[in-house]
Amino acid sequence: MNPNIRYPAVAETHYPSEAEALEELLSQLLSFDSGDPAHKGKSVRAILAPHAPYEMSGQVAADAYRTVKGKSFQTIFLLGDTHAFFFDGIATDSRHEWLTPLGAIPVNRSLTRKLCSSEHENIRMLDIAHDVDHVLELQLPFLQHSVEKGFSIVPILLGTNANNDQFADLLLNLLQPDSLVVVSTDLSHYPTCHQAMHIDSETIDAIVSLDLEKLDSRQKQLWDQSESASINMFCSPDAIKILLMIAKALGWKAERLSYSNSGHLPYDDKKEVVGYGSIVFYEENAL
Asked: Is the overall model pTM greater than 0.90, yes or no?
């Protein structure tokens, strides 16, 4: 195996490992027409999408990627909280390419090096953090199928003590008009199906209104009231909060696209579910 390539970790388990089957599935998921959304005719700057196996959250993810279908971006910043390897700070990746069944995607190594040489004291190349983590990988086939070819990625996983304020300021200085931010997160974890719909509705409302205080307050309230410490509002809290800081600073608007949870699937348990949501962030100026 080439040490300069990050190979797929969850092909087969989370999405088809054969290119033809994967393309067919993505085409089906992206073919649904969601009508006349508020962001139509606006400049899409960021999306929030889930990262469960495609059979569970693929349609919700597709609703986010439909907003960038056929669009061209130079650099795509991928953000998510680490799920597999736990570390302090922020981890980017030193490798040259990330591979999926649909081909290789170049890493913007100029920007990853710039991140690591910045004044932010806790950013480093940490390939092991990315090796088996599915959070960012699940976004790649959708990107390859949706946006114009020629983009590069900046993979970013957030660990503990990420210093969100400072990192948001750093990203603000790196974003260009042809950049896209993708935040990878699922929503509530392990409430009942009915509870999840209520929790996730409030979470999505807070995100769409760019209300960090409401998000923090609701999260604390949920923890205080919950009989189970395992119930959470979302699994990439730092990535979400960094995106909201950027969106507020740049005057972006946000729109809820779709929602579901695993309890809505015919074969899944409704007693402990995971929520999935898609949100688009855009500028008011027309394209």
From this structure: yes
pLDDT classification of 286: cutoffs 50, 70, 90: very low
Buried b (16+ CB within 10 A) or exposed e, 207-229: bbebebeebeebbeebeeeeeee
Non-local (6+) Cβ contacts of 128 within 8 A are 85
Per-residue model confidence as pLDDT tens digits over 120-132: 879 999 999 999 9
pLDDT tens digits for 232-273? 788 899 999 999 999 999 999 999 999 999 999 887 778 889
The CATH class of the 5-26+41-286 domain is alpha beta
